[in-house]
Write a structure and sequence with these properties.
This protein is about 75% helix and about 5% strand. It is built from 15 helices and five strands. A hairpin with a 4-residue loop joins strand 1 and strand 2. The longest helix is centred in the middle third of the chain and has 58 residues. The chain is globular and about 90 Å long. The termini are far apart. About 5% of the residues have low confidence.
């Protein structure tokens, strides 16, 4: 038995908090429901200290995690039969993030003034993207807002998990690279110069490897600002180059063709396309409007161009799978599954299935890349450090007339 903390709402609309022991979160939820409560948050007791909305003296920004929690809680309250205005009032009192709380208050004022939830959300595009707003509007017009909010929360959860898995897998290689790079920088900037002065005082011939290391060290000391400026110049040049749509398209197409990385980018975009379009279609959004929304959120212009082509061909009466095949960007498996969905009339379900397949594929690909990247980083950094050490030893042994 473990201890869990919870936040719930009574049938009268009052917020209650407390702790309870149980086997898992589901058992706590069942116990709260048996007590006549509407459970909103259930988490292990040790995570309570980190659930606040402040970091130091600054409030957190409204990120995907905050938006996900808000959507889940709103879906729970609306599904329980509470009116939307009453649900928002409860969430105002429960939200820790100051910025999000102010936004919810503004949404509540607009709803009390006669606005719909979708229209009220659209006034805050920096928090609620068009995809989110259009799904909510479809739910309101169809009379199943609670179902739509649950689907939106599931969509946000899946997107967050995909991104978090990629970020988590890349943390260790990044730390390894930074630590190794810092070690080499210290050797080149501080350790080697001391040896350089010692070798200079001896006035003896220095082996070629040692000369190379000393030259590199001298360049780093004298022109470090040029090296840093060069990196910054390359970054700014690339950013400026991709400002125009044509150049951005060429750059994104180039990324899709990179060995190893390009395949991963393509799988991520396919998973995002399938998850988003499937969620929109399930929510009752027309397919042409859904394609436009998916095109807007695509982070790769080459993929966005393919989606635009599908949109245009769909207006001409062509199918999605056939239109994708004309561009030859999506892999055969995705096109085949989408084609089956069109033939069976279950396109939304099949798109979500495609998303699940490629999200799993992305995780497998990332793990494989990381498993190859980690030893490669260690090998390269070890070779560099080894070369530096051996070059120093060659000079030292040469000075003392000691052979190997």
């Amino acid at each position: 038995m473990s201890e869990f903390v919870y936040k719930a709402v009574t049938l009268g609309g009052q917020t209650v908090e407390g702790s309870m022991e149980g086997k898992d979160e589901r058992s706590i939820v069942r116990s709260l429901q048996q007590m006549g409560y509407i459970p909103l948050r259930v988490a292990p007791a040790e995570s309570k200290a980190t659930s606040g909305g402040w970091t130091g003296f600054l409030p957190r920004r409204v990120g995907v995690k905050n938006l996900l929690v808000f959507t889940q809680e709103l879906a729970t309250l609306v599904s329980a039969g509470l009116p939307i205005d009453r649900s928002l009032k409860i969430l105002v009192s429960m939200t820790d993030n100051r910025k999000l709380r102010e936004v919810i208050q503004d949404i509540l004022r607009k709803i009390e003034g006669g606005s719909s939830l979708g229209d009220a959300l659209s006034n805050h595009p920096q928090i609620f993207p068009k995809l989110y707003v259009n799904m909510v509007k479809a739910g309101e017009s169809g009379g199943f807002l609670d179902v739509i909010l649950t689907r939106v929360a599931k969509y946000l959860q899946s997107s967050k998990e995909l991104r978090d898995n990629i970020v988590s897998a890349m943390i260790y290689p990044l730390i390894l690279t930074l630590v190794s790079g810092a070690s080499i920088a210290i050797l080149v900037s501080y350790v080697i110069p001391r040896f350089a002065r010692m070798f200079s005082d001896m006035g003896q011939a220095i082996p070629l490897p040692t000369q190379i290391v000393l030259a590199i060290s001298q360049i780093v000391q004298d022109y470090w600002y040029l090296l840093g400026g060069g990196i910054l110049f390359i970054y700014l040049s690339l950013k400026t180059y991709t400002q125009t749509p044509e150049r951005r398209l060429r750059w994104d197409s180039f990324k899709l063709n990179l060995v190893g990385v390009g395949d991963l980018i393509k799988k991520v975009e396919i998973a995002r396309f399938s998850r988003t379009l499937g969620a929109l279609l399930q929510s009752g959004v027309p397919i042409l409007q859904g394609l436009n929304l998916v095109k807007e959120i695509s982070q790769n212009q080459a993929i966005a161009e393919v989606i635009g082509h599908v949109h245009d061909r769909l207006r001409e009466g062509k199918g999605i799978a056939r239109s994708l095949q004309e561009k030859n960007v999506f892999p055969p498996l995705a096109m085949h599954m989408i084609g089956v969905g069109e033939e069976t009339g279950k396109l939304d379900e099949m798109l979500l299935r495609v998303a699940e397949v490629y999200e799993e594929n992305v995780q497998t690909t990332v793990k494989r890349l990381v498993s190859l990247l980690e030893p490669l980083i260690i090998l390269v950094m070890g070779a560099v450090v080894g070369f530096i050490v051996i070059s120093m030893l060659l000079a030292i042994f040469g000075m003392t007339d000691i052979g190997f």
